[in-house]
Amino acid sequence: MGLFSFIKNAGAKVFGIGKTDAEEAREAAEKELKLEEAAARKLEETITDLQLEVEGLNIFIDDDMATVSGLAYNQATREKVVLVVGNSSGIASVDDQMTVKHEEPVAQFHTVQSGDTLGKIAKTYYGNAMKYPVIFEANKPMLTDPDKIYPGQVLRIPALD
């Protein structure tokens, strides 16, 4: 008989079985949106559980970018929220749209490299490795132990008073 050519996705339309590429793509996009919405709600819950005060907190995730809005109690809270969201799996960038109720100086940020310790980071930023508790406290409650940091993690480095 020989080789016959067919329209690849017409079967679903003609016989009502299966799905076309467009239908599968739409369903995949809807599933991804639901997963992103669930991840955003989980992050909002985590921020609440960490007792970070943000009125009207809203997180929207689109692909690997999160947009965060709301009224943070202070600059430290704002920065901690950004770190909680940004240090989450699947998030590559955070668009910080939050405002602050009580203004404070903005902290610096440090991305942990292999071999870093809080003492080494404190020596770099403050000139004194023994100032590592300042960095530890500035990153609570995300950090629970000064020895538990990992490469790629972003930490707040506040100005010394």
Describe the overall structure.
The structure is a single chain. This protein is α/β, with parallel strands linked by helices and 161 residues long. The chain folds into two domains: 18-104, 2-Layer Sandwich (GMP Synthetase, Chain A, domain 3); 107-161, LysM domain (Membrane-bound Lytic Murein Transglycosylase D, Chain A, Roll). The protein is built from five helices and six strands. The chain has helices at 10-15, 21-49, 75-86, 118-126, 132-138, and strands spanning 54-62, 65-74, 93-96, 99-102, 108-111, 154-157. Strands 1, 2, 3 and 4 form a four-stranded mixed sheet that branches. Strand 2, helix 3 and strand 3 (93-96) form a beta-alpha-beta unit. Helix 4 (118-126) packs across helix 5 (132-138). The chain is elongated and about 75 Å long. The model has no long low-confidence stretch (mean pLDDT 88). This is Potassium binding protein Kbp. Residues 108-157 form the LysM domain. Pfam families: LysM.
Please outline the helices and strands.
Elements lengths: L9 H6 L5 H29 L4 E9 L2 E10 H12 L6 E4 L2 E4 L5 E4 L6 H9 L5 H7 L15 E4 L4
Parallel strand pairs: 2-3, 2-4
Antiparallel strand pairs: 1-2, 5-6
Helix pairs in contact: 4-5
Supply the number of structural domains. 2
- What's the CATH architecture of the largest domain? 2-Layer Sandwich
Kindly provide the name of the CATH class of the largest domain.
Answer: Alpha Beta
Terminal CA distance reads 86 Å
Shape, per Cα inertia axes: elongated
Number of strands: 6
Spatial extent as radius of gyration: 23 Å
Instruction: Classify the helix fraction into a percent range.
Output: 25-40%
**How large is the share of residues in beta strands?**
15-25%
Subcellular location: Cytoplasm
Domain LysM: 108-157
Main location: cytoplasm
Coiled coil: 19-53
